[in-house]
Specification:
Length: about 190
């Protein structure tokens, strides 16, 4: 992971995480309207280009919200964000949220982006703990989190309805600075 503070970009072996741009609108809408994508991240599919435009406008104001792009292509294939968590932590705890275009599933991009965000939060932001969550049926997201060192920290029973209409749990996971350092030494 290489962070460029002037451009606010994070570069990995295959990806560039960068700030949102106006030119991302059509790519963002393409995956935001997919009924298999949004609900896995906890939001309804977008119904119009204007809805996606409004979200992008909001995301552009958030410096830790990144478009995920493949190196050499400036096409947005997903997004990842480190959000503030709680009022008392003075920025030392963040929650990571992410979403990826369905055409890009299974290529390891989200694990690579999430690991880069974990490293960025601990190395650059000075975080002490990171949180992540997924819905129990979303095994792919759970695998991403486990591969990046997140361990189950709690569960909210009967949290929401899944895509198939069944009620499911939300699984909360976390990784601490100490456990990240230990993993990094291996």
């Amino acid at each position: 992971m290489v962070y460029d503070s002037e451009l606010n970009t994070i570069t990995t072996e295959r990806l560039v995480l960068r700030n949102i741009a106006e030119s991302d609108l059509y790519d963002f809408y393409d995956f935001a309207r997919d009924p298999e994508v949004g609900p896995r991240a906890g939001w309804q599919p977008h119904r119009s280009l204007d809805e996606s435009r409004a979200f992008l406008s909001m995301f552009k104001k958030r410096p830790l919200y990144f478009a995920i792009t493949v190196k050499g292509e400036d096409r947005m294939i997903g997004s990842i964000e480190a959000m503030g968590y709680g009022l008392e932590n003075h920025g030392k705890v963040k929650e990571i949220g992410y979403v990826l275009c369905r055409r890009e599933w299974g290529k390891g991009y989200m694990t690579e982006a999430c690991q880069a965000m974990v490293d960025f939060c601990f190395e650059v932001l000075g975080c002490e703990k990171l949180l992540c969550e997924s819905f129990e049926p979303n095994k792919a997201s759970a695998n991403v989190q486990r591969k990046c060192g997140f361990e189950e920290a709690g569960r909210t029973r009967m949290f929401t309805r899944w895509i198939d209409g069944e009620i499911c749990d939300r699984i909360d996971r976390c990784i601490t600075l100490d456990s990240w350092k230990e993993r990094s030494r291996r």
